Amino acid sequence: MGSDLHAPLGQDRQAGRRHNTWLSASLVFGCMAVGAVLVLSLYAMRGDDKLKQVAAVAKTEQAPATASDNRPTSSHNDPSGMPRSNPNSGANIERTLTNDGSVVTKYTPRQRDGKGPILIDAQRIGQDPRVAAQPNEALLEDSPDGRLPIIGPDGTRPMDQYARPWSGARGTRIAIVVGGLGLSQTGTQRAIQQLPPSVTFGMAASGNSLQRWMQEARRTGHELLIQVPLEPFDYPANDPGPGTLLIKSSVKDNLSRLHLAMGEITNYTGIMNYLGGRYLSDAGALEPMLKDLSKRGLLFLDDGTSAQSKTAVVAKALQLPHAFGDLTLDDQLQKDAILKKLDELERIAQRRGQAIGVASAFDESIDAIREWSEEATQRGIEIVGISALARDSVDP
Question: Would you say the pTM of this structure is higher than 0.85?
Answer without folding.
Answer: no
